[in-house]
Write a structure and sequence with these properties.
This protein is an alpha+beta fold. It has helices at about 20-25, 60-65; strands at about 5, 10-15, 20, 45-50, 55-60, 75, 80-85, 85-90, 115-120. It has a single domain (about 5-95), classed as Beta-grasp domain (Ubiquitin-like (UB roll), Roll), CATH 3.10.20. The longest helix has 9 residues, at about 60-65. It is globular, with a radius of gyration of 13 Å.
Amino acid sequence: MPKLTIQGVGEFEIAPEKRLINALVEDAGTDQLHACGGKSRCTTCRVKFVDGEPESMTEAEKETLKAKGVEQPGVRLSCQIVCDDDMTVELVSRLEGSGRKDQGTPCAEDIEPPPSWTKK
């Protein structure tokens, strides 16, 4: 099982193929934001990879990061990533201090929209 390390939070074993956003919220119990419900429409689910960043990304993620002007090395949308390998991330967008009333609507088990994979 892949190991997810969240800086300042801890280490967690995650079921293979689980979406990173769901692992962050369900397994690790973090207050990671996901305002659009994991559909790659916003950028509130951003994380910064410290180690284990996937080499591929969805076209939707690539387009959203560019459109929102948040393209930075290691910064990715957790709603568009599958936990296949060990990874270490830093939370970027959290409910605490955001002024939002909640983290966002629940995210589906599978990546939405249906992924078209490309190189990052």
